[in-house]
From TrEMBL:
<keyword id="KW-0328">Glycosyltransferase</keyword>
<dbReference type="Pfam" id="PF00201">
    <property type="entry name" value="UDPGT"/>
</dbReference>
<dbReference type="InterPro" id="IPR035595">
    <property type="entry name" value="UDP_glycos_trans_CS"/>
</dbReference>
<dbReference type="GO" id="GO:0035251">
    <property type="term" value="F:UDP-glucosyltransferase activity"/>
</dbReference>
<dbReference type="InterPro" id="IPR050481">
    <property type="entry name" value="UDP-glycosyltransf_plant"/>
</dbReference>
<keyword id="KW-0808">Transferase</keyword>
<dbReference type="InterPro" id="IPR002213">
    <property type="entry name" value="UDP_glucos_trans"/>
</dbReference>
<comment type="similarity">
    <text>Belongs to the UDP-glycosyltransferase family.</text>
</comment>
<protein>
    <recommendedName>
        <fullName>Glycosyltransferase</fullName>
        <ecNumber>2.4.1.-</ecNumber>
    </recommendedName>
</protein>
Length: 479
């Protein structure tokens, strides 16, 4: 009998990367009983609590015998010498000896080491996979259009000597034609920020260049959502095979709380939503890293008062100036709102800190979502059929917003070019207009989002586009 095949998954540090990695691991073991998966965990000290709680919650699941976790030794982050733009890459590279030790022990087991599946920032681990003589696959957690742009920019830099420095686009009105987008891109507004700085751009494009030497790329998307960029990627002979396998969502992730406080908060939030009419609530949430200063908070509050819709607002305080870390909840809301705001909106609005996003988007009272357009949040909103008003903050979120609004017609715009690294105040009038549009009950956008919701679920069913694509990937592993 053939030995079971063992895949080694290496996500980047952070609970968000870990959760999406585990979702595809669960999907794979559910499809083939000869697959085993080991997930190697790299942790920053600040990530330990949430990561440990998530892993603990998973140990009681039905997949726990075929998906196991190994915590790699923690590295002293003070020893990482890279600049702020390359810190993550340098931190991951420092873990190579620990990964090699862990995989050496796995290779001595009764299973057959079949390959590495690495997160996009973990390309330094390709060298480790090569030492073991096994293929490497990339798990790209964003969309196909973003992936296509990255390859295009890397090709402009490296192919045929036609070097193009992405920093030329900064503060310019230049438009960029790229195979993965139908419309020309307003480059300075939507290219990810790390590609607009010379040092960080080269570091990032070097990562993308290494993608070309892998055996395949798994992308968290589905054909019905991104047919054009997927066609462009699959038509390029210099790009490895691309497998759209999404939407990969942890729809139960709200259950993986770190204590009773979150469970009580979730109960209170859902109870409040139960008292609201269908499609009457606009939900504002900007991800685990999303926060605003007091001036911007006041503009949002003013917009909510002006528009008059019921609202649920997840509000986070930025880290102290000069500090790197996650936002925290505002302990005292009153100090940051216009005077009397909470009193005037009592009963029609609720301000919260932490938000059980999936449970909220699934609630029938929620009719619109003001979002930072992180890819996971984008897929969640489409899955639940809730239209988005775009307000990106960082990374590839501006690009996601452009795709949703201009390419796909699945969202309305509040601001597509806002960056939290150089914030410009978004006016209450602009926010109000976006909320009114996203809450319109009979809009074409709402209709298209509902249709895409149905398609997203069909993609994962037996015979669906993503189901079939994942089958091709599994065949690649065993062949």
């Amino acid at each position: 009998m053939e030995k079971p095949a063992e895949l080694v998954f290496i996500p980047s540090p952070g609970i968000g990367h870990l959760v999406s990695t585990v979702e595809i691991a669960k999907l794979l073991v559910s499809r083939d009983d000869q697959l085993l998966i080991t997930v190697l965990i790299m942790k920053f000290p600040s990530d330990s609590l949430g990561t440990d709680a998530y892993i603990e919650s998973f140990t009681h699941s039905s997949n726990s015998k075929r998906i196991k976790f190994i915590n790699l030794p923690q590295v002293n982050t003070d020893d990482i010498k890279g600049n702020s733009g390359s810190f993550m890459i340098d931190f991951i590279a420092s873990q190579q000896p620990h990964v090699k030790d862990a995989v050496t022990k796995l290779a001595e087991s009764e299973t057959r080491l079949a390959g590495f599946v690495i997160d996009m920032f973990c390309t330094s681990m390709i060298d480790v996979a090569n030492e073991f003589g096994v293929p490497t696959y990339v798990f790209f957690t964003s969309g196909a259009a973003a992936l296509g742009l990255m390859f295009h920019l890397q090709a402009l830099r490296d192919h045929d000597g036609k070097y193009k420095d992405c920093t030329e686009f900064k503060d310019s009105d230049a438009e960029l034609l790229t195979p993965s987008f139908v419309n020309p891109l307003p480059a300075a507004k939507v290219i990810p920020g790390r590609l607009l700085g010379k040092e960080t751009a080269n570091s990032f494009l070097n990562i993308i260049k290494r993608f070309r030497g892998t055996k395949g790329i798994l992308v968290n998307t589905f054909t019905e959502l991104e047919p054009h960029p997927l066609h462009a990627l699959l038509s390029d002979a210099e790009i490895p095979p691309v497998y759209p396998v999404g939407p990969l969502l942890n729809l139960n992730n709200d259950k993986n709380s770190v204590g009773l406080d979150e469970a009580k908060q979730k109960s209170d939030i859902l109870k409040w939503l139960d008292d609201q009419p269908p499609l009457s609530v606009v939900f504002l949430c900007f991800g685990s890293m999303g926060s605003f200063g007091e001036d911007q908070v006041k503009e949002i509050a003013q917009a909510l008062e002006n528009v008059g819709h019921r609202f649920l607002w997840s509000l986070r305080r930025p880290p102290p100036e000069g500090k790197i870390g996650f936002p925290s909840d505002y302990d005292d809301h009153r100090g940051v709102f216009p005077e009397g705001f909470l009193d005037r909106t009592v009963g029609t609005g609720k301000v919260i800190g932490w938000a059980p996003q999936n449970a909220i988007l699934a609630h029938p009272s929620v009719g619109g979502f003001v979002s930072h357009c992180g890819w996971n949040s984008t897929l969640e909103s489409l899955w639940h059929g809730v239209p988005v008003a775009t307000w990106p903050l960082y990374a590839e979120q501006q690009l996601n917003a452009f795709e949703l609004v201009k390419e796909l017609g699945l969202a309305v715009e509040i601001d597509m070019s806002y960056r939290n690294s150089s914030p410009v105040l978004v006016s209450a009038q602009k926010i109000e207009r976006g909320i009114r549009e996203v809450m319109e009950l009979n809009s074409d956008i709402r209709k298209r989002v509902r249709e895409m919701s149905v398609k997203s679920k069909k993609a994962l069913m037996d015979g669906g586009s993503s189901y079939s694509s994942l089958g091709r990937f599994i065949n690649q592993i065993f062949n």
